[in-house]
Amino acid sequence: MKAETLHLKSRMKRWYGGALVASLFMLLVLRYGIMKTAVEESYLTNPFSFNGTNPLDWVHFTGPPAVQNPENASQVISIDTITFSLFAQRNLSKGDQQSLLTWNLLKYLINHSQALPNGVDAIKEAGRAWSSLMASIEKEKLVYANCNSSRKAKEKQCPHFLNKMNATEPDKSHYNLQFPCGLTQGSSITIIGIPNGLLGNFRIDLTGEALPGEPDPPIVLHYNVRLHGDKITEDPVIVQNTWTIAHDWGEEERCPPPTTDKNVKVDELDQCNKLVGRDNNRTVRMYSHGSRRSSMGLQGVKSKRYFPFKQGSLFVATLSVGSEGIQMTVDGKHVTSFAYRETLEPWLVSEVRISGDVELISILASGLPTSEDSDHTVDLESLKSVPVSRQRPVDLFIGVFSTANNFKRRMAVRKTWMQYPEARSGTIAVRFFVGLHKIQIVNQELWNEAVTYGDIQLMPFVDYYSLITWKTLAICTFGTEVVSAKFVMKTDDDAFVCIDEVMASLIRINVTHGLLYGLINSDSQPHRNTDSKWFISLEEWSEEKYPPWAHGPGYVVSHDIATAVYKRFNEGRLKMFKLEDVAMGIWIVDMKKEGLEVRYEKEERIFNEGCKDGYVIAHYQGPREMMCLWQKLQETKRARCCGDP
């Protein structure tokens, strides 16, 4: 019994000892968790401190803070590295810094990077792109210092077209054609080939640039032709899809589709031509030797399904970049459409890859984004912007949305409505707001353009459609903090703006506070269809209707609203919403709740889609249409659309 008692005491001691160790361990874990939370909160709420409000006062960083939490180390270092690369002091001239007047005022965007889709990635990618661009600029300065004749080596880095004849090479199973400056709306890729081999299946992939550390690039469009079907069907089929390392393959779009209700419209064209896969009945008449045709009847009907590609037969296929997606025509007939998917936009495409059982005869890419050669530009001085300063107020500041490789659109705007006397005199100021590109050559061309014309404001993030609200914020910031404008306007680089009519309307309205002027929509609902480009989830907007908002091609707000937008952003009270025009409506109604008296002024002469005579703003106008509209305006002194007599 005594032995059993001693044994029990020994076991109890070991148990108490173990419990004591476990308790100490739990206390350490709890203490570690509390410290971890405190460290995380300090970095999430204030990842770095800023000083100064002058947009030309660059932020100085002394180095990364001491990391107390090993698990959070990579996140902290990543934030600090990105911040340093984007906002560190650079050896730039005062002239070079004119394109960065808004840049430093947007430094708090990193605190809002998770509020919009792709925000974090856009800032990270911008950090890499900016560092690369600054390095190339420094290198270029050294080269120029040693040899002034080196300018020619940089000309036409962005060619207007590329072609390759006899494209198939015997020792290659695929063919790549690179696009140095991506694609843009209006670009097209024409492929001439013959399906051959055992099956005749082949693929066309439009790919982007792989990020550092990623083995494969994203696929913006995977166009897979399967002449003998696949696991789902035995009939010929075209499969379209996308791929990214983060989300793998997306949802397949098949042509012909399994069900007819899936055939949606893209750029007003069917996702799949209804003729594809449909029976094409042909009457076959047979006659005996020497007989008269009139005496013979129908001998048989041969049924054949239409499919645009056929093994052993030549095809001419063209992929065209539209505003909503990519269209495919084969032998002159529209076959498929593919809507852009989030983060996979045409400017991202850096090459086309063609592989499989196909003899590639030629490939031609045309309508590629290309910059103007300033050395051969007529009246270059008249295209340069008028300098602005806060000490010189303007009646109207116009911010124009543009993407990095939209060189032609920006030039069309410079040559047309930016030539209004009000814009040339400086009473109205116009600037393009452009995010960085993933391709270094594009950023170099963009930088040269910005330095040449002085009318571009670079954004500290890579351009994604889901982030255009940040540009609206930037426009309000420029119009109130860089210049002092009575009114601030937002428009697009494919919109023709009659500046004189806009100003005449603002003078007639005679309201300088709480004004939203534009094509007002007072009765709209969120798109709940997940297939919609403008899909909004309940988490993003839970109410049944939006507050009043003005359509994006062009709207004006008064100075006080623009000022409040920037102030709320700095205070962390600005709701980020991915539809920028609706976002402005949301911001204004929030101001209204706090006592702002709002005046909504609807302008029926702003045309959201296309052009009508008497327009104030005409949307969806390409460079040629812009030049035509300007010429008509000069000749007739009236806002007449092109195509009219």
TrEMBL record:
Mode of membrane association: Single-pass type II membrane protein
Signal sequence, start to end: none
Gene Ontology terms describing biological process: carbohydrate derivative biosynthetic process
Keyword set includes Glycoprotein: yes
Cofactors required: Mn(2+)
InterPro entries according to UniProt: ConA-like_dom_sf, Galectin_CRD, Glyco_trans_31
UniProt-recorded Gene Ontology molecular function terms: carbohydrate binding; UDP-galactose:N-glycan beta-1,3-galactosyltransferase activity
Galectin domain span: 175-366
Keywords, in A-Z order: Glycoprotein, Glycosyltransferase, Golgi apparatus, Manganese, Membrane, Signal-anchor, Transferase, Transmembrane, Transmembrane helix
Subcellular location: Golgi apparatus membrane
Pathway it works in: Protein modification; protein glycosylation
One GO cellular component term noted in the UniProt record for this chain: Golgi membrane
Keyword Manganese: yes
Main localization of the protein described in the UniProt heading: Golgi
PANTHER family membership: BETA-1,3-GALACTOSYLTRANSFERASE GALT1 (PTHR11214:SF129), BETA-1,3-N-ACETYLGLUCOSAMINYLTRANSFERASE (PTHR11214)
Similarity comment text for this entry: Belongs to the glycosyltransferase 31 family.
Name used for this protein in its record: Beta-1,3-galactosyltransferase GALT1-like isoform X1
Taxonomic lineage from the root: Eukaryota, Viridiplantae, Streptophyta, Embryophyta, Tracheophyta
